[in-house]
Design a protein that fits this description.
It is built from one helix and 15 strands. It is an all-beta fold.
Length: about 210
């Protein structure tokens, strides 16, 4: 809104920038190079951005490829046999909670305010007892503190694990698998992979599809 039309002119370049969720910024009133974003327990969206520049194509079609601006963090837990009756698991990472987004260039400048961000539980598998995920602002997290709380053997447990360095990158998924024992937490594996992409919308109307 308003309805857009191609401008006439031989070889005239048209420049497109798009983002989701739309309420992140107003294209008419906000400085799109400096958009403040804060992660909270209740508002932590997956931010997608797309940009392209082209002359008017013969078929009048515009293709936009959206990429993830933020990062994804997965934590998987395994427990030794010492623990029985495990329940009420919560996992939180101490990370940066704010950033400045450049929606025109598709970049993120991490803020300095840090806090605990809880992971949301997802279906576990492959020998993993518990698995959680969360969207994270891209950042280099030195001495990254991960706090675990759970019930086991009829007792409430709270443990902390400190990873020397975790690098969260835009569009990447960092996965940390931890083994929880009676006295310590050990790393089973750590990996960084591309975030799994959804299939193209194809020729459907994006407004109706969303």
């Amino acid at each position: 809104t308003p309805y857009m039309r191609w401008q006439n002119g031989d070889g005239l370049q048209h420049h497109f920038r798009s983002w989701w969720p739309a309420q992140l910024a107003s294209p008419t009133s906000d400085d799109l190079h400096h958009v403040s974003h804060s992660v909270t327990e209740t508002y932590n969206p997956d931010i997608l951005v797309a940009r392209t520049s082209l002359a008017r194509p013969a078929d009048n079609r515009l293709s936009l490829h959206f990429t993830h601006l933020l990062s994804r963090f997965d934590v998987r837990l395994r427990f030794i046999e010492h623990f029985t009756g495990i329940s009420d698991i919560t996992v939180a990472a101490h990370v940066a909670l704010g950033a400045e987004l450049d929606l025109m260039e598709g970049t993120v400048q991490c803020g300095t305010t840090r806090g605990a961000l809880a992971l949301s539980e997802v279906v576990a598998g492959n020998g993993v007892y518990w698995s959680g995920t969360q969207i994270i602002i891209p950042q280099e997290c030195a001495d990254c503190v991960i706090t675990l709380a759970f019930m086991a053997n009829g007792t409430e447990h709270q443990l902390q694990y400190v990873h020397p360095s975790l690098l969260f990158e835009s569009g990447k998924r960092t996965t940390l698998t931890l083994l929880v024992s009676k006295e310590e937490i050990k790393v089973v594996s750590a990996s960084v992979t591309p975030w799994i992409e959804s299939p193209s919308l194809g020729d459907t109307d994006a407004e109706e599809t969303i």
